[in-house]
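Hi all, long-time lurker, first post. I run a small reading group and we've been trying to get comfortable going from sequence to structure in the token notation. Rather than ask abstract questions, I figured I'd post a concrete chain and ask someone more experienced to write out its structure so we can walk through it together at our next meeting. Sequence below, copied exactly:
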Amino acid sequence: MSAFTAEIIGTFLLILLGSGVVANVVLKDTKGHNGGWIVITTGWGLAVYVGVVVAGPYSGAHINPAVTIGLAVAGSFPWSEVLPYILAQMIGAMGGSFTVWLLYKDHFNRTPDPGLHLAVFSTGPAIRNYLLNLFAELTGTFVLVFTVLYFTDATLGNPGTVIGLGSLGALPVALLVWGIGLSLGGTTGYAINPARDLGPRIIHTLVPIKNKGDSDWKYSWVPIIGPFAGGILAAVLSLWLS
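-- Answer (accepted) --
Happy to help. Here is the structure in token form:
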């Protein structure tokens, strides 16, 4: 599997399961209706785990443009690969979001609130304050990228002997995203990933849903600029501390 394909598949799985858990909780007549915030944050954490397990061996499983940019700024990823990775992430995010819409199509059409339709596809503020919303996305992504930059493999004995965890090696980033959602996600829904928000928002604009509202494009810049700024800030601070 090429790195480009891995980023598509990893991001597809991330959004399929992440947006899928939101659909299961907020849409009418689902088995998980009204499951609550714990279900949503846990589902997103596990979605990250699945995406990283699949894509990790082939691409490093960025599955997030803010992570890709942050790693490039930190000198841990070649700039020549940044745009291909981001393109792959956008393709995967749009594909995952479209599949969620198809799976839950009947439930979308039974849900009268257009705000809940949009919530499955993209994030939105609990209280609309663009400056604080931007700060929330910056902060959440800063925690994500800064912590990712400090992930290390465990070693035992000689420096060249690495004790790996196999697929469980993806668990730390899943726990990290889960923690960010639980602690920092209540203000904006914690996109912390430009592709995760922009790709599905595009799909929301395109697909037919009964009583669908607008896609809130006036807010869409916040979960793009905020995560990029947070990722870059995390990388710069990491370089300064090293």
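A couple of things your group might point at:
The longest helix spans residues 3-26.
The domain at 3-241 is CATH 1.20.1080.10 (Glycerol uptake facilitator protein).
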